[in-house]
Amino acid sequence: MGGALSACMSLEDISEAPPQLPGKVIAAMAKKGMKPESPVLVRIFKQESELEIWKVDRTGAYALFKTYPICRWSGDLGPKTKTGDRHAPEGFYHVSKGMLNPNSKFYVSFNLGYPNRLESALGYTGEALMVHGACSSSGCYAMTDQGVGEIYAIVEKALSKGQDRFQVQAYPFRMTAENMAAYRDDQNMPFWRTMKEGYDAFNVTRRQPKVSVCGGRYVFNREFEGGEPTDALAACPPAINQLEPQVMAKIDAEAQKLDAAITGSVPAMSSMNAYSDGGMHPSFRTLLKTKGPQKLAASISATKYPISRPEAALADPFSGK
Asked: What is the pTM of this model?
């Protein structure tokens, strides 16, 4: 971990010009049967403080390319609902080229597009929720400069070579039955169960789920009578298709596993008091303890932004979980 992290945190290649794909990244893609211009998909996990980059490989399906540690995110587990709640968002977002910012005050960034259509319909408020550099967050996902530069170069290449927009799936945690059961009493569980449908569909098919909004919720991989629903809160029109039977069987089996875990003996916990303000990947938390906030900030970003709420970042609500 130490060697990998020190390589990830190098600022030697950072410049004022928009980041380009390093040769070592292109080589790593080639080893996995991926091309720099192939479509990309991003998954984010709060509890684990990790961001994943997925690329379409030679099979035509998505495969995991790389996992990046998140230096800082803020708020609690659960969706962002209003301006000023400091929550980093959870949901399904789509990022087009115009949402990339090569001149961000946090080195480079891309806007998640919060609030999305569902969030807007529910009256949620907020703006400028980003994935960006530095280790400071008031609702964003903050990476090292080197990390976000690499991510930016990967997604920009895909968008410039024909991908219209890429999907971002932002989750509270890896949505295993065991993790879900541990939060069975959380007020966000109905929302998270809906999100898990998209999570499971992607895990089973390795295809980007089609995300629709109706009935006040996300609906995945459906075509509807009369076309795509336009009213996010109205009842969903009748569906005219579904995934292949063998795929649906696997997704249904995962739902049954979740029901069994929720009624089983997995200890329940509440996320509402788990965080004093957001989280930090354990590798950065270790460095924060040993180096202090000023030295850590200087080692991961050239933008001079301090670590946001370092005392809260030092808290590890899942120690020993």
From this structure: 0.92
